[in-house]
Amino acid sequence: MTGHVLTFTGTALVAVYVLDAEGAELRLAETVRGAGRSYALSARYPLSGRSPVADAFRAGRPLWLTPTELAAYGPIGPTTPETPTTPGVSLGALPLGGDGKGLGCLVVVDEAPDGIDADRRGFIELYAHHVAAGVEAAGPQALTQRRPELPGLTLDRLRVGSFVLHLDSGRMTADTQVLDLFGIRGEDFDGRVETLLAVAVPDDIPALMSVLEPDLLTSGTAQLEFRIRRPNGELRWLGLRARVETGADGTPWRMLGVIAETSHLRPSADEVSLVQRLSAALAGATTVRDVGRAVVGALRDPLGAGRLAVAELQADQLVVGVLAPAEPAAWPEVWRAAWRSEWPEPPSHALPTLAEALREGQVSLWPEGAGLEPGLAGIGPGGLAVLPLPADGRIVGVCLIGWEQRHEFGPEERSLLTATAGLVGQALVRAHALDAEHELATMLQRSLLPRKLPELPGGVAVTRYLPATMGLEVGGDWYDVIPLPDGHVALVIGDVQGHSAAAATIMGQMRTAIRAYAVEGHPPDVVVAHANRLLVGMETDLFATCCYADLDMEEGEAWFVRAGHIQPLLRQPDGTTAELDVEGGPPLGVVADAEFPMTAAGLSAGTLIALLTDGLVESARLDLDDGVRRACQALARADPSDPGGVADALLGGDSRRDDDVALLLLRYDGMRVRPIRASWTVWRLPDAVMHARRFTARTLRNWGLADELDVALLVTSELVTNALVHTRGEVRLNLTLTADRLRIAVNDPSPRTPVKPTTVDWEATGGRGLLLIEAMSQTWGSVPLSGGKQVWGEISLSSPREEPRGAPPEGPSPPEELPAELPEEPPDAGPGERTEGDEGATGRRGPRRRRARR
What we know:
This protein is α+β, with helices and mostly antiparallel strands. It is about 30% helix and about 25% strand. This is SpoIIE family protein phosphatase.
């Protein structure tokens, strides 16, 4: 066991002391002497007495004594048969069990008048960790009782070698024990790290390089277990522990390391199976919370643990990912204060033992009755394992495993938990990076979608969007709900090919373009055709699918256009659910002159319309037809009184998604009170505003709106005056009475949007019109129309109307109101009044009539 240390450092004697069963003294378990050396040490050292061994054990840190300092202890140091004390001998005492459990001490004696030098101290300290692992695996009592019938109890089975790696040149000096462990003859070793890596198992080389690569090194200690393949084909496990030393400028310049064979410490077949299950679970974990759930599922029940916690370490704070069980009362008070997922202060303030374990980076196993602070003792009263989670040469988190009943840590448990910690640490770093990238992609995607949906007359719309969990790049799914004039609503859903920033860019452009074409008043087929030509003309190879629906919320009529998209789903009030057979055209961006036919459908109150993207009904595990069938079944079973619940039922509970999911759901209720409309074509005559006011006054009196008359006449005057003064061509006045408001709108042929003045001079003769409209109206605005615009203002009714109060006056204006030289009115236009049933009222009574604008 210790022969190598003697050869490499010139140490004369190495001894291992372990704590006795009563915990009263340290007893000598094993001694190895150099050739020709006859030094001896005491067989036992009481903990209550004064000795280098007892002092180092109580202090919990190495004690290095020069001959002078050793002599101050009196006749308790190393002796020879000739002399009870030997001058010129230095001694080192290193406690075993750095996590505070106090396994024993490693004692080295060296013929060094000036003390053991720094290099040998570094190697011996690294070696002490391997000795501690051997002591823990064998059990201290087994060593003191010397029971050779049990395997793995004597420390001389440890095979340990040492090396020095110069980081500036990459040259390595390794002793014969290291070369023997790797199966390399001394004459074949050329001092290059690559020669040793050549026999390592390929899967373990990246982890080895993370320790040995100079560009990634920082000062500190690193440990790793890896596999090599011997020349005879034998697979062997080796453990590496190394310390990086830095120069005066803080730059790493060399590494001191020891390598030991750890095959006898490897887990059993059952434990290997446990690690394999954990590895498989972590492979699919894409978020920090997923990592925590995988650890809980793979370790808690197999280990019989009562509590398990996984937390990230971020800027000296622990961000808790998972606590199991998930009840605050099951955890100590310091953890309950952190139940909102983040500790308010660094953990060292409340849990110094945990902070020390994180600094050391070693797995700590605490048996029942260990003297821990309440915040840790309460996690595992029967035993506690603290697993710092390493990754990329640093500690990225911690896993705590606690047992409620007395737990005996087996000889191989440390190796098992060390392997587990490495897996979880790497998964945690990967998941944290995925979380950040996924959050960025999701934020970009959501910023391109509507922030909120408008309130709709005669219906309720809800949407859902879920980003893919299997990829990180932003997708191209989008949806939109567009209020249109005359009680119409446009529903749009689409999907741009691929997942990339380019797909997201095209998605945003398509959504904006379709909204603009729809608001201009084009029928559905024209809207989609314009969007198709726009995408064909872009400098992209991407295409998009789309489904567009124009709903007349007054009449219950819907017109659908489909461009390569999956069919919409329709649920009738009686629960019957099926795909709506919508005749389709090619995807957008494929054929410039493609035709997109319209399909009509009638809607009854209580009908549900579902527009969705293929991510909801198709995946690597789900066929499209099966997915559509499941969606229809979920839609049929759902309660239409809760549209949000219906949307959630359609999404299901699958948290793993290969593609983005977008869902647009509308419940058509029909209008309780249908709007009444009237319109007037304003001729460009000197008294045109007076005629418009008279038409408005007669219409409002007929509708019983005497209280709103004065305000309505003022708004009418300003809207008509602005249109006549600032535009040319036909001007049309439209009045619409809904259940709770009166809308006054003026259409003109100018596409220029009116601009409200910021200030108006007292001497100015104009510029006050829009200010008056804004002051007198509840809301006002301007929307583009095909070939022009519409400026409108809305006035709230003093009392909501329950049912129609009449129709606007019929017939032309009285003859005395029109000039005698007025030209004859054309068949389809001219001064006069249009009522609700007249096609010419607004030019927007349905998609068929508006096709003429194409």
